[in-house]
Automatic annotation (TrEMBL):
Pfam families: ABC_tran. Belongs to the ABC transporter superfamily. It comes from Persicobacter diffluens. This is ABC transporter domain-containing protein. InterPro entries: AAA+_ATPase, ABC_transporter-like_ATP-bd, ABC_transporter-like_CS, ABC_transporter_ATP-binding, P-loop_NTPase.
Length: 302
């Protein structure tokens, strides 16, 4: 196996009576783009903070590039890049001053690793004298990424980097990550957006502090054990209620313009279709579909 850059074994974090991180184990080999996918409160930030040595684990152990997060915290801090979800920039410093500050803290200079951030920095360079607090969400995110990269980290930790960022900037951001990956940097990224999961090489789905599944996005989809259908008709609210009450329908959930349903063992889609027509639903559409990561997540949650 490739060299392991992140190794978590039964990692735990407890806040009062709540287990924010519950026996979490996963491994990330060198050069991988690994995603932690889960809703708010799933425990993603707590895992990031333990791996970047800002929070002590209450159980289990973890290493980053072979260094223990408790014993070797100083060495880890020198070599990882961390872009927290919020407040990573000094709002009153300009773009250039922020970058200079991070370079100085890591005992390096902007020039030394400029090649790594060049593509990203050039996009915000026209605003280099603007205070970080006055930048748009997308520009803040680019600056924060430059700051996290300025010392050429071995592992880059990005906690919800695209939350609150517009669709175009989100897309650009993921393209930047693929380029960084080509530079050999191992990247662990978290996101609550299920559509972004497919942009990672492997993902861990996490909820309530526990990992539900770890695999490639395609692997997670292929593990989905049911046949999934999308159903639509006029009067969607009414349709949902009717589907819930039908004996052949096992589970129903609203999904964009459709309801996604699974059927009870032995039931088939024709029975449901005929019944919907008999029940006078207009414009019925019922089709078998490939599950998305979100469908897989919903299935694993129950
Ligand atoms: N310092 C703290 N004290 C008490 N509870 C905490 C603390 N930090 C986190 N928690 C709780 O632990 C759980 C996991 O939080 P965490 O921030 O790790 O989740 P998350 O997946 O990153 O979600 P979010 O996107 O909301 O930050 C949440 O229920 C949260 O309220």
């Amino acid at each position: 196996m490739d060299r392991l850059m992140i190794d978590c074994q039964q990692l735990e974090k407890v806040f009062g009576a709540q287990k924010a991180v519950n026996a979490v184990s996963f491994q990330v080999p060198e050069g991988e783009l690994f995603g932690l996918i889960g809703p708010d409160g799933a425990g993603k930030t707590s895992i990031f903070r333990m791996l970047t040595t800002l929070l002590l684990p209450d159980g289990g152990r973890a290493t980053v590039n072979g260094l223990d997060v408790v014993e070797d915290f100083r060495a880890i801090r020198r070599q990882v890049g961390y872009m927290p979800g919020k407040f990573s920039l000094y709002q009153d410093l300009t773009v250039e001053e922020n970058l200079q500050f991070f370079a100085t803290v890591f005992d390096t200079s902007i020039q030394e690793n400029y090649a790594l951030i060049k593509d990203i920095y050039e996009q915000i360079a026209p605003f280099k004298n603007r205070r970080a607090g006055k930048l748009s969400g997308g520009m803040k995110q680019k600056l924060a990424l430059c700051c996290a990269l300025i010392h050429r980290p071995t592992v880059l930790f990005l906690d919800e980097p695209t939350t609150g960022v517009d669709t175009v900037s989100r897309k650009e951001f993921w393209e930047m990550l693929s380029r960084l990956k080509q530079e050999g940097i191992t990247i662990m990224v978290s996101t609550p957006y299920m559509d972004e999961a497919t942009l990672c090489e492997r993902i861990a789905l996490i909820q309530d502090g526990s990992i539900l599944s770890i695999n490639s996005p395609a692997g997670i989809v292929s593990e989905y054990p049911k046949t999934l259908y999308a159903v639509r008709a006029e009067r969607m609210g009414h349709l949902q209620k009717a589907l819930r009450e039908h004996a052949s329908v096992e589970r129903v959930f609203a999904f964009g313009d459709y309801h996604h349903i699974t059927l009870t063992p032995g039931a088939n889609q024709h029975t449901v279709r005929e019944w919907l027509q008999q029940a006078q639903f207009e414009g019925v559409e019922l089709k078998e579909i490939t599950p998305t990561i979100e469908d897989c997540f919903i299935h694993l949650m129950h």
